[in-house]
C-alpha cells in the first residue's frame, strides 16, 4: 500500500500556495507526478518538493506547467507574485483570491474523487462547416469545448460584465454564505446559484464548479457522522444530478450518463425514495434526448410506479414517457401520458415542502406535447404548440426559451413556412450564442440544412449567414 499523500498548507505562504495550486491543476488533469515530470522534463521528486512548498519553482518550470496543464496563464501569474508578497498576506486583489481561481477553496487540495467524469481529452461533438458548404459533426477534446472554443459561443458571454459577475459568484461560495452556516446549507445555497446561472448563461461556466463541489462534499463527509453525513450525501446526489443535466445540455451524453448514473447510485444510499424516483425520471428524459424511445418509456414507467401521489414526480415521469412513446411513433399513448401529467398536477394536493419538479406546470407539459407532435410529423400543430407555450414561460428561463424557439423553427420548416422558421431561428441563435447550449446549436444545425432549399428567401439567407458566422469551419 502506498503512503498517504501529505496534506498541503496553502495558507502558510505564497510559496506553499503555488505548490498546492500546481497539485490541484495536476489532479484536475489526472496526471501522476511521474507523468507530469515527463511533460515538463523535471524529476518527480523535485516536483513533489515544489508542491509541498519546500522549494521555489524556476520560471521555466512555471511556464512549462502552465502550458502543459492548460491553465491559461493562472499558474504563471501566481508564480510571479510569490516574491512580491513574502509574508503570505493575501490582499483582496491577489490572484489567489480571484473567485475563479482553482486554489480558492481548500477542497481542491484534497485527492480527487474516485468517481471522475470523462477525461478532458474525451470527445464532444460539435457542428463544423466543411469547405464545400455542408455541415459535418466533429469531435473536440472536452477541454477545448468547455473553454468555448469549439462553438465560438463564449466570447460574447465572457465580454459581458454581467457574465463576469455571475462567474465570480460561481467560484466564490463565501460570497453567498455566512461563516456560521452549516456545510450542508452552504452547498445548498451554492447549488441554487449554479442553477440560476445555468438558466441565464448555460452550462459551460457551471460544470467545473459543480464537479469541484462534488469532490469537496465527498471529502467533507469523511469528517461527519449521523444526520449531518446523510444530509451531505443527499446534497452530493443533488449535485451529481445537476452535473448530469449540465452535460446533457452541452450534448455530451456520455458524461451526462456518467453523472446521472452516479446520482441514481447515491440516491439509493440516501434512503430517500423520492430522490431515486426523480433521478429515474431524469434518466428517462436523457434517454429521450438520445432518441432512445424504448428506454425512455421503461425508465418513466419505473419512476411512475414508485412516485408518491402528493408530489409532481408522477407528472414528470408521465411527461418524459410521453416523448418516449412519440419517438416510437405511438401518438395515442403520448397524448394520453401528457393528459395524465396535466391531471396529476391539477387534481392532487401537492406537498408544499416538496421541491423536486417545481418547474412542472401546464406550460411545461404543453412544450412536451409540441415536441411529441413534431416527433410524429404533425408540424403545424407542433409549431402552434411551441409558440403558445413559449409565451407562458417565466422570463428567467432564458436558455430553455432558446431551446424551444429552435424546435419551433424546425416545426415551421416541416409546415413549409421558411420565413417564419428563419425568423424564429434567429431568435434562438442569439440565445445559443450567449449560453453555449449545445441543444440549441444542434437543433439550429438541423434547421440550417433543412432551409437550404429556400436559400434565396431573404429571411433564410439572413439566418444562414448568421449561423455560418457562429459555427466552426474546416481549415
UniProtKB/TrEMBL annotation:
In the record, which residues are listed under signal peptide? Answer: none
Q: Which Pfam families match?
A: HTH_31
Q: Where is the HTH cro/C1-type domain?
A: 22-76
Protein's name in the database: Helix-turn-helix domain-containing protein
Amino acid at each position: 500500500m502506498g503512503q498517504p499523500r501529505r496534506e498541503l498548507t496553502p495558507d502558510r505562504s505564497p510559496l506553499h500556495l503555488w505548490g498546492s495550486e500546481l497539485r490541484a491543476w495536476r489532479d484536475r488533469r489526472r496526471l501522476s507526478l511521474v507523468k507530469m515530470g515527463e511533460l515538463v522534463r523535471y524529476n518527480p521528486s523535485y516536483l513533489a518538493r515544489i508542491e509541498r512548498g519546500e522549494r521555489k519553482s524556476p520560471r521555466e518550470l512555471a511556464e512549462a506547467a502552465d502550458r502543459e496543464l492548460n491553465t491559461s496563464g493562472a499558474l504563471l501569474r501566481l508564480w510571479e507574485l510569490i516574491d512580491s508578497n513574502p509574508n503570505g498576506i493575501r490582499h483582496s486583489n491577489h490572484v489567489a483570491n480571484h473567485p475563479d481561481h482553482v486554489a480558492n477553496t481548500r477542497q481542491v487540495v484534497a485527492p480527487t474523487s474516485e468517481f471522475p467524469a470523462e477525461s478532458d481529452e474525451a470527445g464532444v461533438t460539435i457542428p463544423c462547416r466543411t469547405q464545400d458548404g455542408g455541415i459535418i459533426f466533429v469531435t473536440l477534446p472536452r477541454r477545448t469545448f468547455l473553454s468555448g472554443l469549439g462553438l465560438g459561443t463564449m466570447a460574447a458571454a465572457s465580454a459581458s460584465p454581467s457574465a463576469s459577475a455571475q462567474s465570480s459568484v460561481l467560484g466564490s461560495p463565501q460570497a453567498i454564505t455566512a461563516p456560521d452556516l452549516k456545510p450542508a446549507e452552504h452547498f445548498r445555497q451554492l447549488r441554487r446559484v449554479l442553477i440560476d446561472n445555468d438558466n441565464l448563461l448555460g452550462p459551460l461556466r457551471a460544470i467545473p464548479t459543480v464537479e469541484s463541489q462534488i469532490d469537496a462534499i465527498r471529502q467533507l463527509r469523511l469528517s461527519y457522522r449521523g444526520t449531518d453525513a446523510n444530509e451531505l450525501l443527499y446534497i452530493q446526489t443533488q449535485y451529481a444530478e445537476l452535473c448530469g443535466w449540465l452535460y446533457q445540455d452541452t450534448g455530451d451524453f456520455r458524461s451526462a450518463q456518467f453523472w446521472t448514473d452516479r446520482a441514481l447510485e447515491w440516491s439509493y444510499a440516501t434512503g430517500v425514495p423520492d430522490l431515486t424516483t426523480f433521478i429515474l425520471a431524469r434518466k428517462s428524459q436523457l434517454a429521450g434526448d438520445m432518441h432512445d424511445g424504448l428506454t425512455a418509456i421503461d425508465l418513466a414507467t419505473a419512476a411512475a410506479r414508485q412516485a408518491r401521489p402528493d408530489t409532481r414526480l408522477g407528472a414528470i415521469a408521465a411527461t418524459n414517457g410521453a416523448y418516449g412513446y412519440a419517438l416510437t411513433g405511438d401518438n395515442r399513448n403520448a397524448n394520453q401520458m401528457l393528459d395524465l401529467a396535466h391531471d396529476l398536477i391539477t387534481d392532487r394536493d401537492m406537498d408544499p415542502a416538496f421541491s423536486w419538479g417545481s418547474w412542472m406546470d401546464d406550460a411545461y407539459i404543453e412544450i412536451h406535447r409540441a415536441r411529441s407532435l413534431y416527433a410524429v410529423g404533425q408540424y403545424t400543430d407542433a409549431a402552434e404548440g411551441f409558440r403558445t407555450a413559449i409565451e407562458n414561460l417565466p422570463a428567467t428561463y432564458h436558455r430553455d426559451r432558446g431551446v424551444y424557439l429552435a424546435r419551433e423553427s424546425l416545426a415551421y420548416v416541416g409546415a413549409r413556412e421558411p420565413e417564419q422558421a428563419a425568423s424564429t431561428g434567429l431568435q434562438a441563435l442569439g440565445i445559443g450564442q450567449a449560453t453555449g447550449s449545445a441543444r440549441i446549436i444542434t437543433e439550429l444545425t438541423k434547421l440550417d440544412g433543412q432551409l437550404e432549399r429556400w436559400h434565396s428567401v431573404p429571411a433564410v439567407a439572413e439566418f444562414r449567414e448568421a449561423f455560418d458566422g457562429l459555427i466552426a469551419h474546416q481549415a
